[in-house]
Amino acid sequence: MASLLSTAWVIAQVATVSGLTFNVPSSPPSNSSAQLSDAPVGVSFEFFAFPGYWNDVPSTSTCLQNLKDLSGTWPPIRIGGTTQDRATYDASSSQQVTYTVANAGDAPSTLTFGPSFMSLAGTYAGQVTIGFNRRLNNLANTVAAASKAVNEINSLHAIELGNEPNFFSGSDPIAQGSSWTASADYASEVTWQDAVCGNLSASNLISAGVFFGTSPMSIAGLTAVEGQANSYVRQYCSHNYPQSKSTANLANLMSHSGIASQIKPFAKEVAAALAKNKPHVFGETNSATQGGGGISPTYGAGLWLLDYVMQALIMGTETLYFHHGTIGNCQYCWWGKYSMGSPYFGAYFATMALAGANKIAPLDDQTTGYAAYAIYKDDKPIRVLLYNSDYYTSGSRPSQTFTLTGLSGSTVSAKRLTAAASTSRVDAGQSPTVAGQTFENGSCKIQGQSTVESATVSGGKATFTLQASEALLVTL
């Protein structure tokens, strides 16, 4: 698609505060990330809703294709969530999934799924992680489902055995009449890993843990008792939702320093996984539990997503899977049947920033609202991502200047992520833009002409202006 070259945003001066300067190292510094995966930004689909996203929501294929067009790799997907622990495999069913609900926006309390559920998952060309039931304590049923998944999903990456066992209770069948504790879960996980992988003659298959948060159950605790069962583990998995309906605060969510503080407890989880020579993933994550509090559909949540991805990768996480729940009742979803979600713009921009990259390094100290990241390929800087996380809704819009040093050449180009306000929502008629472009409601097709900015490099320096609640991707 054709592009427009502009310097208008770069040279804009609107209530600018004192500038920041960051040197761009010519090679990855010691605080760089580990080797990046080809597609670190993934998508999670609620178990019962997965066939609906695949069969009935046209935007699904296009939104995933858009991300693949940036990175060259299909984004990994995960199929799971609360309803995986309500689901029973029915090998004789001709239906992908069977359930009843009183209202279309509800999740079912019980459901069955047939072999064609796995066949449908097998149509995806990217990596697939799928979750099965442990809560109901029907090991034979889960083994049968896992066996079918292995046979039907050529790109199967991992299998989960239960979802967020933090929330299991002593009354659930898996507890077998006893109290449900962290130690009980760890023992159960290891037993099920051994049984499932033993029956399948498989190793390196299980996405283990699948814990909400870091306490009372933790990857550090689980890895301490895995023993030989660690050979069955593909990855260790955490779930993370920074906010909830009762704590929702968009300014705090999108704050650069706030993100650093929020994910800090997961550093021990990452370290525990790496100590077992296994990667760590956020297998399910999003802005607020169940999309509550009104913040999840906003542009600010998209900015949170962008910065959260970068900080998590530097911390050592391999992949992040952003959850998509009940179709038509999903505040944090990137897309729906009829409308786009503002957070998709953050996912798209993050994927653009990381496309083809090997490493990413922070240039700031995560203590302010302003972020700078150097992005490397073949140990050479190829891009710099800048982020002004100041919250903005109306009135005079402050801005911040960022000066980059250590640059070569005479000019650099840039693409901007922006919106009218932190609270902008596509479904309210205030779509964000990525380099001037948007995504069509109902199809996810890219709309508009790309606007590429430029800046002059003088003496190895270039300066950029970012208004509050903006991000800029500079190509070197």
Topology (SSEs and partners):
Elements: E1 3-6, E2 16-23, E3 41-46, H1 50-56, H2 59-71, E4 77-80, E5 87-89, E6 97-98, E7 111-113, H3 115-121, E8 128-132, H4 139-152, E9 156-161, H5 182-200, E10 206-212, H6 219-226, E11 233-240, H7 250-254, H8 256-263, H9 267-275, E12 280-285, H10 299-315, E13 317-324, H11 343-354, E14 359-362, E15 370-377, E16 380-388, E17 399-405, E18 411-418, E19 433-434, E20 438-439, E21 446-447, E22 450-456, E23 462-467, E24 470-475
Parallel strand pairs: 1-22, 2-17, 3-4, 3-13, 4-8, 5-7, 8-9, 9-10, 10-11, 11-12, 12-13
Antiparallel strand pairs: 6-7, 14-15, 15-16, 16-24, 17-23, 18-19, 18-22, 18-24, 20-21
Helix pairs in contact: 2-11, 3-4, 4-5, 5-6, 8-10, 10-11
Could you please describe the fold and organization of this structure?
The protein has 476 residues and is α/β, with parallel strands linked by helices. The chain has two domains: 20-28 and 362-475, Immunoglobulin-like (Sandwich); 41-356, Glycosidases (TIM Barrel). The chain has helices at residues 50-56, 59-71, 115-121, 139-152, 182-200, 219-226, 250-254, 256-263, 267-275, 299-315, 343-354, and strands at 3-6, 16-23, 41-46, 77-80, 87-89, 97-98, 111-113, 128-132, 156-161, 206-212, 233-240, 280-285, 317-324, 359-362, 370-377, 380-388, 399-405, 411-418, 433-434, 438-439, 446-447, 450-456, 462-467, 470-475. The strands form five sheets. Strands 1, 14, 15, 16, 18, 19, 22 and 24 form an eight-stranded mixed sheet that branches. An eight-stranded parallel beta barrel has the order 3-4-8-9-10-11-12-13, surrounded by five helices. The longest helix is centred in the middle third of the chain and has 19 residues, at 182-200.
